[in-house]
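fwd from M.: "can u put these together and see what the complex looks like"

so here's what she sent:
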Amino acid sequence: MRPDATDSSAPTGAGGEGTEAGMSLLGQTAHVRAEAVIGTLAALKDEGYESLVDMFGCDTGESIELTYHLRSYAKDRDAYVKTVVPYDAEVASVWNVYPGALMPERETAELLGLHLAGHPNPRRLLTTDGVPPLLRRSVAIRSVEEVKRR
Amino acid sequence: MTDPTEDVAGVGLLAEGLHDPGPAPAGIRRAPSGVDGLTTEHLIINMGPQHPSTHGVLRMLIEVDGEEVVAAEASIGYLHRGIEKLAEHRRYNAVGTLMDRGDYMSGIHGEMAIALAVEQLMEIEVPRKANWIRSLTSELNRLANHLVWYGTFGLDTGAMGQFLYSMRDREALLDILEAISGQRMMFNYVRPGGVVADLPAGIDAKIRAFLETFDTYLDEHDALLGGNEIFQGRVKGIGVIDAGKALAFGITGPNLRASGADYDVRKAKPYAAFAELEFDVPVGTVGDAWDRYQVRMCEMRQAARMVRQCIEGMPEGEHIAKVPKVLRPPAGEVYACVESSRGETGIHLVSRGEDTPYRMHYRAPSLFVLQALEDILPGHLLADVVMIIGSTDVMMGEIDR
C-alpha cells in the first residue's frame, strides 16, 4: 500500500520558510533548507524523536541530497529530514543534537566530497588522503580488465 | 605554580640521573599527576589493526594515564571495499552477494534487508513458505553468529575451553545452512521475491537432531563461561551504556536491549514470518558487559525456540514469487530493516527505474556502537578495553562496508 501524498501528522519541525513536510514511500519526510537542518532536528528531538537512526547522502546528479533518519521509540515512529547542498559545500555538523551522527557524518562528507563545520573530529574515516569522493556519480569504478591493464 | 621537576631535583633524583624525562617523543603528552607534584606521561597505545582481540581489523588509539584510559579513538577503513558504490553497478538480484560480505557472520540478514527493500519498491507479495524459510535461516544464522561471539568473547577474557565447544556447534549449524543454501557463509540465498531454492529433503530431521543436543549444550556453554566466577568478576560493571546514551548514539539490537530498552525490529516492524512466531525479547537492566552477555545467551535460546517452531509449522507452497529475471523497480526511495545479529541492519534504496540501484545505503549497526565506544572507554582500565569491545560484538566488515 502506498501512502497518500499528504499526511497531517507529518513532523512539523522548526524549518521555517522553505520547509515542506509530507508522506512519501519512505515515510514522513520533511524537506528543509540546509541552514534550517539543525533547528529542525532540535525541534524534532524535543517532540520525542530521541534517536538518529542513520544519516547518509546521495549524489542526485546536480547536487548532494542529505537524509537524516530519526526515530521515536516511545511513539514507534520514523521521520526523515532531507536537505539539498551543492557539491563541495560546507555542512554544519548535527552532533550536538544527535551524537549518533558523529561517524556517519564523517563518512558522508568523505565519500561525497563535503566539508564538515563544527565537528569535533572532521578527519577522513574510511579512505586515505588523495582518494576521490567515491560515492559521487562522476567517480567511475574500474572493471577487472581495467585494473589488470594498469 | 612551581615547576614540579624542581622538587624532584631537590630530593636528589634528578641529580642521580634517575628521573630525567628528556624531550617527549611525538604522541606523548606530559601532565602533572597531582601526586607528589610528579610529572607523568600519557602514552598513546596503538591497538590493532592486527590485534587478535579487535575482531577483524579495528584499530584503536588509546591514550592511557598509567593503566587508565583517558581517551580513545577508533580508526577504521581497513576493510573498506566500497559495497555501496559496487551496489550501484550490480543488478538487484546480485546486491545480496555484496551484503553477504558486509556482515559476513550473518549474511542471511543482510540479504534479507536488500530483498525486503526491493520487494517494498516493487510491491512483490512473498509466498508464505518463503517467509517461513527466511525466518528459519535467519534464526539459524543468528545462532551461528552468537556462538562465534560467545567463543571469542571468552577468548578476550582469557578463557579457552568454550571456544572449541562453540565452534563445534557453529560448524553443525553451518553444515545445516550449507545444506539449505549451498554455501557456508556467503549464502546468496534470500532473493527479492523469496528464497532461491526450496528446503532440501530431510533437512528437518537434521535440524531436529541438532536441536535435540543443542539445548543441553547451550546450558553447558552458559555454565562454562557465564558460571565462571573469574569471568563474572571480569565483566560485571564494565562498559556501562545506559539507555539514554544508547539511544543518543543510535545503538540498536542486543546492545540496546542490554541497556533496558525493549526494542526489536522483529516485534516492532515484523518481517518474514516473525509475526506468526512466538518468542520473547530478552532485556537487560544496567547495560554493562555482563548484561550484554546475558541478553545474547537468552537470544540464542529464543532463536532455538523459533527454529523449532519453523520446522514444526513449515507451510507448503512455492518458495519464490513470480518475479522477472531482470528486476526494474519503479522510481522511488524506501527503507527496509531487519533485526540482524548485531542490531538493526537497514537498507536505504533509491531507485530511478533502472536495473541497478541508483543509490544503496547500508545502515550498519556496529558503526553506531563503535562511535559510542569512544565515549565509553575513558575511565576504564586498559585491560577492560578488549573486553568491552568484545562484549559489544562489533563487526568490521559492516562498519567499513
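replying to her w this: Residues 108 and 138 of chain B are 6 Å apart (CA to CA).
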